[in-house]
Amino acid sequence: MVAAADVSAEDVVVTAGSSAAFVLAFLTAFDAGDRVATAVPGYPPYRHTLSALGVKVVPMPVDAATGYQPTVDHIAAAAERAGPLAGVIVASPSNPTGTVLPREVLADIAAYCAERRIRLISDEIYHGITFGDKEGRFANGGARGGNDGDATCVLGVDPSRSAIAVSSYSKYHCMTGWRLGWLLARDPTLRAAVERLQQSLSAPVTLHAPVGRRPPHAHGALLRPDVRAGLDAHVARYSANARSLTAALDAAGCTPLVPPGGAFYVYAGVGRLLEASGEPDSGALCGRLLADTGVAVTPGDDFDADRGGGYVRLSVCGSREDVDDAAARIAKWAAQVDGVRRRSP
Predict the structure, then answer these.
(1) pLDDT score at 339
(2) Which of 290, 345, 291, 343 is nearest to 312 (CA)?
(3) Which end of the chain, N or C, is less surrounded by CB atoms within 10 Å?
(4) pTM summary value
């Protein structure tokens, strides 16, 4: 169960997908020339959209040591390096890594941002898709898993009530293409600005809640039990697929490799495969892998411009049969290219 946060109907702005929500949030929260920090590897449209609006993107390089998630130390280092920050973007579970921010780490980040009047924006589009058991052992590879493997809504840990949460129906609810998202903002001044901009972009939507009730914000909380059970069955499949693919990549020598705590991706270092295959970077390796095995894999360059050439992202949202087959093909191919390397003079 995703940690709930009290949200009123007035706090919700319905948008044309999460992409529109991010544009609205960025337009209202930041001015041209502001500095906004975001983790790398990370979802490319954050930096593309911010840059298009004249906002300076400050990268926070993260790695396996923190489960590919930022900490207060990363934010402080970014501010020291680039100058005072106007905003920070976090994503949990993350794309491309699928890792989850532990609740206590997100709370620390929210408190740090509140104290320094830094606007915190949380991408929560993969909420509802988490894999941790009661001990959180699979989430982020054990000790790095947080909140028993679940993802926490930023509104539940934000002391300033100024953080923004963004999500949509496309992932957990399997409604990709419907372009139905939302933005949660409890700051009335910011929300008023968002609503004024929204009127120019699409027809405004007003939500009405029963008088006196403030329903908890939790993905799927208001679904019928049978509907939620069907959606959670997809999550169980993603988790099983992630385990299968992670095991195959580990056997192939991919490292560092942090098992995902949610979403439906695996992010893997491919330095050993680059050495064995003779390919110069992950883009070339992905082309070779597609030609040799028929398995399509995404190079890491777009998620991390500096280090992504040594990484790939793989999706696990297919059928069990397809993902197991892809894992077997990758493992067989890796063994073959490694054998060729060992036999070479």
Answers:
(1) 63
(2) 290
(3) C
(4) 0.87
